[in-house]
Amino acid sequence: MATTLIDSRKNGYDPNKLTDQQKAFVMELLASENFCMTEAARNAGYKHPAQAANKLLKNKNIKAALGKAQREVAKKIGDIVNCKSKLL
Fold first, then answer.
1. pLDDT for 18-43, tens place per residue?
2. Exposed, middle or buried, 69 (CB in 10 Å: 0-12/13-18/19+)?
3. Architecture of 18-87 per CATH?
4. Looking at residue 56, what is its pLDDT?
5. Which 3-state string (H, E, C) describes 49-69?
6. Taking all residues of the chain, what is their mean pLDDT, rounded to a whole number?
7. What is the residue-wise DSSP string for the chain?
8. Percent of the chain with pLDDT over 70
9. How far apart are CA 50 and CA 56, in angstroms?
10. How far apart are CA 67 and CA 73, in angstroms?
């Protein structure tokens, strides 16, 4: 557990500092096919999604959460490529 906390701080991401609605925005954005920020904000329940999306993407914790997710996906893709190359 301590390692997870240290890794989170090192990456600049503290999940405890995101509200439930901000977490929903991050998840909606990551799940979207076209990475539409306004649609993600709308689905997360923001009243003015275009303005909210612009403001949310300036939030350091949201940027860090998106960066962390991007690194995790890249690592998984790398693992798949390595596994396939070993099979060939």
1. 999 999 999 999 998 888 999 999 99
2. middle
3. Orthogonal Bundle (1.10)
4. 95
5. HHHHHHHHCCCHHHHHHHHHH
6. 83
7. -HHHHHHHHHTT--GGGS-HHHHHHHHHHHH-SS--HHHHHHHTT-SSHHHHHHHHTT-HHHHHHHHHHHHHHHHHHHHHHHHHHHH-
8. 78
9. 10
10. 10
Backbone region of residue 46 per phi and psi (left: phi > 0; alpha: psi in -120 to 50; beta: other values): beta
Give the amino acid at 67: G
Closest CA to 19 of 11, 27, 31: 27
pLDDT at residue 75 in the model: 86
Using CB atoms within 10 Å of the CB of residue 63, give its burial: 0 to 12 exposed, 13 to 18 middle, 19+ buried: middle
